[in-house]
Known about the structure:
The complex is a heterodimer. Chain A is mainly α. Chain A has a single domain (2-401), classed as Ammonium transporter fold (Orthogonal Bundle). Chain A has helices spanning 2-8, 17-42, 50-77, 110-128, 138-161, 166-170, 178-196, 212-231, 241-268, 273-290, 296-313, 316-320, 328-346, 365-395, 402-407, 409-414, 424-440, 442-445; strands spanning 79-81, 85-87. In chain A, helix 2 runs antiparallel to helix 8, helix 9 packs parallel to helix 11 and helix 13 runs antiparallel to helix 14 (365-395). Helices cover 23% and strands 37% of the residues of chain B. In chain B, the strands form 2 sheets. A 4-stranded antiparallel sheet of chain B has the order 2-5-1-6, with helices on one face. A two-stranded antiparallel ribbon of chain B has the order 3-4. In chain B, strand 3 (42-46) and strand 4 (49-53) form a beta hairpin. In chain B, helix 1 packs antiparallel against helix 2 (67-81). The N and C termini of chain B lie close together (9 Å).
Amino acid sequence: MASAAITLAADAPTLSAANTGFMLICSALVLLMTPGLAFFYGGMVRVKSTLNMLMMSFISIGIVTILWVLYGFSLAFGTDKGSLIGWNSGWVGLSDIGTADLWDGYTIPILAFMVFQMMFAIITPALISGALADRVKFTAWALFVALWATIVYFPVAHWVWGAGGWAFELGVIDFAGGTAVHINAGAAALGVILVIGKRVGFKKDPMRPHSLPLVMLGAGLLWFGWFGFNAGSWLGNDDGVGSLMFVNTQVATAAAMLAWLAYEKIRHGAFTTLGAASGAVAGLVAITPSGGAVSPIGAIAVGVIAGLLCAMAVGLKYKFGYDDSLDVVGVHLVGGVVGSLLIGFFASGKGQSDVQGLFYGGGLDQFWKQCAGVFAVLGYSLVVSAVLAFLLDKTIGMRVSEDDEIAGIDQAEHAETAYDFSGAGGGAARTSVTAAVGGESKKVDA
Amino acid sequence: MKLITAVVKPHRLDEIKEALQAFGVHGLTVTEASGYGRQRGHTEVYRGAEYTVDLVPKIRIEVLAEDDDAEGLIDVIVKAARTGKIGDGKVWSVPVDTAVRVRTGERGPDAL
């Protein structure tokens, strides 16, 4: 269908090697975010559940890749059915997609668009895992990922980005996934933890991050990959919008990191590493929906507001007593809502479209549209995810036994431990090396 | 014989080691330890959640000495370990019945 249009219409898009190359690189960048997320989360848990946290992300790469090829792409981006879901039987298993077929209206192959969007479908369920640290059976999680992708992510991606999807047609702006990815995952996390409950010892036992360097490494990989996520979402560089998105991604992230650090310094007396990493991620989340619509100055505002609000929001779990273990709600849900709603105020009319927000003379029209998108996705994801977790809990059980959770889920579910601290290769050797090196460079300590 | 045990600040290890070598000590055992005395712990903050960390990293040094050397050795360790600030640690000694060099089977002071 698309190839026929190309030969008939003189001004129809033709394949751009530059755009296609860019999109394949962006796809690889977005894939890298999921291992990045795994390390970001993995460093934040205690030693005994590090591997489980890493695996919760990695298993999503396996499962969602296959589902996306089998039917996910068709459900999300196939021909619209009633503004709620898509379907193209020829896309099942990618069977009827030719290498020369272009994504409708663009200069890249359908295959390039398909694989780029696949990476979004992979990371979204993985984002949820941070709220479920230390306590969820791996088989239950794997089933949850498959079911959640099918009945929550694929439809919501269609609503927001699919031609004919209701939010897309309403004019809800979600450049790269503030609504479809971050609000969606954050609301799902809240729904699931309300069903499965807290970790053993929540609010009583110390649950310090076991490796902040891993968290920083993960945040760095996320930041790097996020350029593909955001700038790639314009699907080409025939105008400057992708570049604006790239710039705003950097600007908002920097601003949010500084805002979070400033808040922490004033409130808690220190500039923490975890605060820097968290602030950066909050900024990335908030600029994801809005970066194509706002100016770079607007991006600073979005970043600062998101950094401050997320820094405040992460404390709410202790107040309300829900165990959002690694603050998926506090960072991704709150950051996503903030970024999506701020479009209603900061849209400049000079980016992806001429839509203007309240501060640029456009009134509140866009704000109300954003609210519709935000709260519909939030509500749908929250309720369906809670029901899904409830059904899995009543059938195969969502949680590992309390004994296994206390002893460590890594050994119970994966038959491995993350670090070997014992024997001659561990602590003893490290001590002697310290002594040997220190003996020669004594002045350093003195 | 005496077993002298010192639990001290980790960054004093090299000073103590050199002082002991200068004194003529041929061997010692070092272990990473944690604990607290009057120093108590410190507070850490993670995303606004404050944790009191009671146990502070320490180094535990163990040296075997002949009875006549013990007091002098303790003085050497104390001098090298001292920073004058709270948390400098403790040194103590206890009597030892016997000691054996594993390789040769030598016993008593000969094994030191």
